[in-house]
């Protein structure tokens, strides 16, 4: 989860949700685990990779929150993503990867 503290009195909510008044100092918790497993945002909500947002409808910009977001995003995000790409490239170069008849996901 991500915790943030309101810096001033504010109202959140919009067209689809009722408005909620938050006072300065209120701690707001964002349940990342629940968001990443919500079928409204992801086609395969039980899949461990969250890089597959739904394409059939507009999805909130900040749905994928593995590294947080906004001005307080994880400072190691770019480094971690680069490391993952390098590791994946090395892994793929050492093996022959093919699909199988048992594959249930659309590749």
Automatic annotation (TrEMBL):
Protein name: Cytochrome P450 family 3 subfamily A polypeptide 5 variant
Molecular function terms, GO-annotated: heme binding; iron ion binding; monooxygenase activity; oxidoreductase activity, acting on paired donors, with incorporation or reduction of molecular oxygen
Gene3D superfamilies, alphabetized: Cytochrome P450
Mode of membrane association: Peripheral membrane protein
Family per record: Belongs to the cytochrome P450 family.
Tagged with keyword Cell membrane: no
Record's keyword terms, sorted: Endoplasmic reticulum, Heme, Iron, Membrane, Metal-binding, Microsome, Monooxygenase, Oxidoreductase
CC annotations in GO: endoplasmic reticulum membrane
This protein's record includes keyword Oxidoreductase: yes
InterPro entries to which the protein is assigned, alphabetical: Cyt_P450, Cyt_P450_CS, Cyt_P450_sf, Insect_CytP450_Detox
Annotated signal sequence range: none
Pfam families referenced in this protein's UniProt entry, alphabetically: p450
Cofactors required: heme
């Amino acid at each position: 989860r991500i915790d943030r503290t309101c810096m001033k009195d504010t109202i959140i909510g919009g067209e689809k949700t009722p408005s909620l008044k938050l006072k300065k100092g209120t701690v707001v918790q964002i349940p990342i685990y629940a968001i990443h497993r919500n079928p409204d945002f992801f086609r395969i909500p039980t899949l461990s990779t969250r890089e597959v947002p739904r394409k059939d409808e507009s999805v909130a910009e900040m749905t994928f929150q593995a590294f947080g977001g906004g001005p307080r995003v994880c400072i190691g995000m770019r480094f971690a993503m680069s490391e993952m790409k390098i590791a994946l490239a090395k892994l793929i170069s050492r093996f022959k990867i093919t699909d199988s008849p048992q594959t249930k996901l659309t590749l």
